[in-house]
Amino acid sequence: MSVAELKERHMAATETVNALRERLKQKRLLLLDTDGLSWELRSMNLAVATYARSQGKTPLTFGPTDLVCCRNLQGHTGKFRGGLLGMLTYEVYSLDWTAEKNRIVSASQDGRLIVWNALTSQKTHAIKLPCAWVMTCAFSPSGLSVACGGLDSVCSIFNLNSPTDKDGNSPVARMLSGHKGYVSSCQYVPDEDTHLITSSGDQTCVLWDITTGLRTSVFGGEFQSGHTADVLSVSINGSNSRMFVSGSCDTTARLWDTRVASRAVRTFHGHEGDVNSVKFFPDGNRFGTGSDDGTCRLFDIRTGHQLQVYQQQHGDNDAPHVTSIAFSISGRLLFAGYSNGDCYVWDTLLAKMVLDLGSLQNSHGGRISCLGLSSDGSALCTGSWDTTLKIWAFGGHRRVI
Amino acid sequence: MPSGRANVGDGGVQYSFAMEYHGPPITRHLPRAVPINVDRIPVAAVVSQGSLSDKLALPVVQPILASDITKNFSKELGLGSECLVSPKSVISFERQIGDDDSVSKELLLGLGTETTVSPNSGPSNHDCRLSGELSCSGTLEINPDGRYGSGDFSDVINSSTELGASTTSHDLSKELLAGVGSSGTLGFSDSFDKSRDLSGSPSEFGVSNACKESLDINDLSQPDWASTESILSFDYPSSRVSSLQVGDCISEPACDERRNLVVTFRDIESEDGDLTEELNGAEPEITGLKKEFEVRAKKGTCYRCFKGNRFTEKEVCIVCDAKYCSNCVLRAMGSMPEGRKCVACIGSPIDESKRGNLGKCSRMLKRLLNDLEVRHIMKAEKFCSMNQLPSEYVCVNGKPLCHEELHLLQSCPNPPKKLKPGNYWYDKVSGLWGKEGEKPSKIISPHLYVGDPIKADASNGNTQVFINGREITKVELRMLQLAGVQCAGNPHFWVNEDGSYQEEGQKNTKGYIWGKAGTKLVCAVLSLPVPSKSTYSCGEQVNNVVSRPLPDYLEQRTLQKLLLIGLSGSGTSTMFKQAKILYKDVPFTEDERENIKLLIQGNVYGYLGILLEGRERFEDESLNERRNYNCSRSPGQTGHADENDEKTIYSICPRLKAFSDWLLKIMVSGTLEAVFPAATREYAPLVEELWDDAAIQATYDRRKELEMLPNIASYFLERAVDILRPDYIPSNVDILYAEGITSSNGLACVDFTFPQPASDDVDSADQHDSLLRFQLIRVQARGFGENCKWLEMFEDVRIVIFSVSLSDYDQFAVDGDGTLENKMMLSRKFFESIVTHPTYDQLDFLLVLNKFDLFEEKIEQVPLTQCEWFDDFHPLMSRHRSSNSNSNSINNSPSLSQLAFHYIAVKFKRLFSSLTARKLYVSLVKGLEPGSVDEALKYAREILKWDEEGANFSLSEYSMYSTEASSFSH
């Protein structure tokens, strides 16, 4: 078979797939057409919002003092490039809260994991990593250990209580190696200190058994229904920890069942750029995504439909990328960090932007790279490429909606 | 220079504002400005940062205006808080006015201007009355006042714009400008705005947190504008001063004049007064200013909440000496990334007088925070680079040290304790150490290469007796005499670190100075140092600079990162391994070798599998051929021809066949890695047998037809029998050839230094070179491209080494979107995307054209024009080509491959300069030859060196530190 012939066949196959995908979309929209809403609205994915409005829901309002930056965590130190450019900054790449709500772990390009006490804004641990290029970190549900992963393709587990050596470095408690690409994201399975799911640049997600250090199952990879590009993010369903969702550079998000590694339960199309961040909705039936195309979307895992798009209209084409998202405890608010340093608070129901943290006082000076809500929902922590993390909390009183 | 000007300037502002203003408009505006607060507060914090730090440089001096202030204060209190305004804020505001006024007064006096200083001695009024009172004082000195006002004007605008002062404040100032028509007022209006801010905020916010914060910030920063503004205006683009300038233009010359005057002040003051401890006779006006900061809060109260008295426990900022009570300290100091500094002081060098306290924790912090937290703060305080002793402040034998030298000094086995900034002398031979012009104070480790050679008058002795070229002091001479050393005739001694001494020019040791028991006693009486016991025999280790571990803050600076990237198959892995073998004493540890061994063995099974697969194919083919042949010959006899014809030269015996089938099955199922390392021992004999089998050898001879089999497979297959032995230890060459050693994970890095040249005349430049550490980072190419998420992680690399395999020009690979494309074109695409990546837009690129050895062979057979990018390659030797005698063209002086290399290099260079308008460096490499890789990496080092020399040609040779140095110098 010649190259040209192969090319031709490939083209034809791609076309078929696209046509089928389009048909699927049409069919979905048709199915959604049960409440007599006009076609335009549906196609704009405003169905939910319209319905909500018709039910008399009004968007939330936020004043500039409702969310206040109450802590500024500094401690990731400067990067040095000799010569012309002098001091650079070490971007904070990832953060995670503990379950018991007052501690944060953050990973930065200075090659350190720092564990913060969010109440005093002090460091309790600073772990120097063997590989400085760290991309993700996570707290174990018990708060006793932290995991991190990065370009070394290894997910390392550190025990916070283990004694440090003479330089004050903690030894690696466990190395989870097996990925063939960088580890882009990791999350502990809720309530289990021994299981962890990672996503990787090798197009797979892996469920690990930490006690043995072995892969329990691999999602994607050589199997047909896996991601076709780097997986950037995972999120485990809080109410059913067997289900998790992954977002990838192939612009899709996929839903997986940890018991069925062979194929994805469902694939969610819709984004036009890399899906940088996925996060389960608190009720576990929906999940949100954030993408390089500048939008956040809300998908329903049971129907496979896209419920909502959160998009700020930008004049030019290059909308800032969404780097990270998080939901409030009730799910009414969606926090989304953008590559231009904005951090929007969206009303998930009405798809309206209610607040931009970037416009508040003490906001970050660089790209928001990660954000997370404390487990009790009382505080939001944002990490930025300006080397700092900031904790935001409600500054005012509001009536319950 | 800047801060001095600002001092005057600030005085001027206040002064002018005191004079020129009339009351009514302000009172009217006061309430209106209140809502702006929120916007303005945060930015004020930003400025205050600078201000506090600057403040630092000013010496702490005695309060002069105490009476004034207290008067203010009491009056203010007497007035009571007539509105909602919190008394605190008003107080501080008032005080400030008072202070500034008096400062300006003093300045005027100091300048010797003819003015009889402003009679407005009653600045102690509440804000509303302020304006009127100020205006009344104005009449006398319109001229100087205008000057000050205008000079300051730009500064104030700067600060206000920096502050992001909201539009309202601008409006206000404009109105004011219109009303009074003088630039002085403008300055005033601005500052007034700020102050109003202060007073306004409480009423607006009640007791909310934010308000507290803002109040605090304003309080802290306001008086310091005096000093910061200078800095701000210094680097302030004039365009941003914007429309408000209108009034200012008129008085521009006056402003300049004022600056000239101030220069002198600043000079005196900028000598790092408190550091060199020379500033005792400083100007009174400076003292006034400093004091103002000191006394802002009532003595002994917390700087943030103004509560408490001098007996309440407080934590002190190690930069600005601000004191905070236990309720405020966490707020005021935040997360303390550099130890106990107020948030605004982070990033500023510490107060040298507090160096002794670094890392010593107070009880208060221990109470507030838990152990782990305290430990981290103290560690940060001691070890963060900002808090380190600035090396330029320590002069040894008249030469300021560089970072490395200082570190050497501090980390030697017997370091000078509690090293303070200053001038020292150091006797490298004996280890004697002392302050310049004084007797020795300590004996430290000898033979440290720090500073210049010692001078004869280092300790200012006048005895005409010399030790190691230094004229000793009388005390030392006395000691020598008591120790029994013959000092008649003004001898020149040569004293070693162990105390043995000899006269200059003589070989025999005359004795040991510290040998006698009494000597130590004498030394103690004369307060001269004696060597500590641990001093001896450490000289050698100390000099081995490279092997010593560096502290974190230094390590980062000296480490130069080289990023090595290229598509997979471009030889980056080989180069990386080569570098490891070249520069590391132990390139691979035992464990690594063990892993590599398993990997190589696994690879060999893989190659064998490919061979066996090929064998089956060849067998089938030849069988088919034979059948067809048979068929065509005798169509009826196929039935029993089978048994006879089953054997071809590719057939193997059933036992081997079983093994082969099993191996192939494993390969298909993709579990080769899982099975093989363990099964190696078992199957090694079989492999040996297999390899000796004629069928395999026949297949091996046709290996060119097996596309799956990599080039290097033959290297290993020919050694297969040895390699599969359990006791096999991979040699460096084996490792070099092996696939997949570094590519199994995405990233590998190795730290190395270039070995020092063998010659032992190490001049200082060479020594400096050897201090440079390099880190070669090699990343796997997979997943590169436009949406590559992690290229920006490597923004701190100094140079990108981009590797392209020359032999790729006729190879094809699958693109990201599934289409088959020429690998050279893929490399080019990748090159373009990396070069234009915003992270690397200022970086140097070194293009490594790799695999030249393969290329040399290939180009003789396959024309370079196979790749569409190179379709205009028509080398000069086309005559030979047309005659189809490529292989003979070696007779030509530049070979075809050489020409092709230059052609490709130029192609890339053009591409690069069209994309970036810079110069691309190109190097030719044969990855498997150590010398060639070494050359390429040294070339990269040279490029970095040129870079630095080009950038800092006027600065010291330690250009790496130049940025750091400049940040200390103001």
Write a brief caption for the model.
The complex is a heterodimer of chains A (401) and B (970). Chain A has 401 residues and is mostly beta strands.
> What fraction of the residues of chain A are assigned to beta strands by DSSP?
35-45%
Number of helices of chain A: 3
Q: Residue ranges of chain A: pLDDT <50 for 5 or more in a row? A: 36-43, 79-87
Cross-sheet strand order for the largest sheet of chain A: 1-30-29-28
Based on CA atoms alone, the radius of gyration of chain A comes out at: 21 Å
The largest sheet of chain B has its strands arranged as 14-15-13-16-19-20
Question: Which sheet architecture does the biggest sheet of chain B show?
Answer: 6 strands, mixed
**Which overall shape of chain A is indicated by the principal axes computed on the Cα atoms?**
globular
> Based on DSSP secondary structure assignment, what is the total number of beta strands of chain A?
30
Q: Specify the structural class of chain A.
A: mainly beta
Overall mean confidence score, pLDDT of chain B: 65
Helix content of chain A: 10-25%
Organism (chain B): Escallonia herrerae
Protein name (chain B): Extra-large guanine nucleotide-binding protein 1
Family (chain B): Belongs to the G-alpha family. XLG subfamily.
GO biological process, one term (chain B): G protein-coupled receptor signaling pathway
